[in-house]
Amino acid sequence: MRSDDIELVMLPGLGARMHSLRVRGASVLRTPADVTEHERDPFYWGGFVMAPWCNRVMPGPMRVDGHTVDLPTNFDDGTAIHGQVYAAQWERTGDASMAIEREGDGWPWRYRVEMDVMVNGLDVSIVQRLRNLADTPMPAGVGLHPWFPGHVKIAVHSGLVYASNTDSSARPRPVDGDLDLRHGTEMAVGVDAAWPDPTDPPVELWWPEAGLHAVMRAPFPTLHIVAAYSPERGAIAVEPETHAPQGLRRLVNGEPGALTMIDPGEEIELPISITFDGGA
Q1: Which of 13, 53, 6 is nearest to 29 (CA)?
Q2: For the chain, how many structural domains are there in total?
Q3: What is the pLDDT of residue 248?
Q4: What is the DSSP letter of 249?
Q5: Residue 231's domain spans which residues?
Q6: Where are the beta strands (DSSP E) in 24-180?
Q7: What share of the chain is helix, strand, coil (3-state, %, to 5)?
Q8: Would 131 be classed as within a structural domain?
Q9: 31, 39, 135, 256: most buried, per Cβ within 10 A?
Q10: Residue 76 within a domain
Q11: Residue-level pLDDT at 280
Q12: Which residues of the chain have pLDDT under 70?
């Protein structure tokens, strides 16, 4: 997909993921030289869809609204991470639309994920929808996980934070120190956290070497911004999500930031926009 300023390459056969994104000639996604790297190492390249949950949940049996969720671990920290569709084969339903239906693998509900993508001028728009195809209510979460390489400055406009995504607390606390990203800075090594209730705009990004600035928006009632710095990969992840890490535990325990329960036939929708300019 192209405009005069942007070129975006998507891979429907590998999770409907963003393979590469170039803005005015500058590459702003962590893109492998060989596309098969997305399949070999799916969590650290490009930008991928997370559904029917985002970030980490604990594996093993858990009772949720009368059903047993029994997810296998798929990550080296022992968690079940980033849902089930990040590397799966999606169907192209239009020139810039993709969809997938899934169930099983420990998730007792059938669901459908749809995504529409548009490039216009200096804007990238991505609309994600997650629909419950089962005959009972289903917990639902959806989000986008892009990796931005290089020396990227970031601002997350929230005064609250869940300080650790690997050991997510029941409730957020006020930001401080390296977790206060409201004013635009390079992220500190070791940060892997989630920020609830951001103001508008939720996220700003700067690429000083390329002379680029971007604003990311993702309007949703319980929007969370998850961000992490991976020094060994030279990139930061900045993820708009509909819930906080450990969304199933939060749902069962009545904690804030839980997955959203949706009735049969209902859906949640997360519109995401990334608007670039030369304000670096």
Answers
A1: 6
A2: 1
A3: 97
A4: H
A5: 6-277
A6: 26-27, 47-50, 56-57, 60-64, 67-71, 80-81, 91-94, 97-104, 107-120, 123-132, 138-140, 143-149, 153-156, 160-161, 173-174
A7: 5, 50, 45
A8: yes
A9: 31
A10: yes
A11: 57
A12: 279-280
The β-bridge partners of 194 are 162, 226
**CB crowding 55-92: b at 16 or more within 10 Å, else e:** bbbebeebebeebebebeebeeeebbbbbbbbbbebee
Tell me the per-residue pLDDT of 210-264, one tens digit each, with 9 for 90 and over: 999 999 999 999 999 999 998 888 899 999 999 999 999 999 999 999 999 999 9
Helix, strand or coil for residue 259?
coil
Number of Cβ within a 10 Å radius of residue 111: 23
Rounded to the nearest 10°, the torsion over CA 17, 19, 22, 28 is: 80
Task: Provide the pLDDT for residue 151.
Answer: 87
CATH of the domain at 240: 2.70.98.10
Residue 25: inside a domain, yes or no? yes
What predicted TM-score, i.e. pTM, was given to this entire model?
0.96
Tokens of 4: 């005069």
Place of tokens 């951001």: 198
Element containing residue 225 per DSSP (H, E) = strand 224-230
| pLDDT value of position 278 | 76
pLDDT for res 230: 87
